[in-house]
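Example protein was shown:

_____
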Amino acid sequence: MDYNDKIGALVDALIENYQTRNKHTGTKLEVQDRLIWFIAQTGFSTKVILSAVEEYLTLNSEYTKSLENLIWTPSSKAFSVHKNLKDSKLFDFICNKYKLNDTFIIENKGGKYVQWLHDVAMLEVPKKLPDEVYFTGSAQTDLEHSDKIKKLYLKNLKN
């Protein structure tokens, strides 16, 4: 996943939420980098993330992690670069909020089936391409099929 306008708008909204409450955000570039990684790993929508962060700030007004550390906190202070969802307070918070089964995402116990669902659910169906490049023959039917895959994936998240 790469930077796009949705990511930029989300980063700005999250930083504004933190700054409104006089909370530390960390660097904008680091927040953006961690957010891109987080969305690529989880598939959570910008709406879900924004809502979760707002709720987190409301519930944790006394002690709040910086925004960049809410998304992912390095397990070691010295040059930790390998991100892992186990080290994400935001991931824990969202899983608890929506009662999601996080174990298969973290431990990949779902096997190839769930991994395939995850990978396909993360794909965005491009528009305005020749019909022969679409799996189902058109952008519209690929989009409908993608929605079915996302629902299957979410169903597996909850089990």
Q: What stands out?
A: The first helix runs from residue 5 to 20. The chain has a mean pLDDT of 85. The two ends are 27 Å apart (CA to CA).
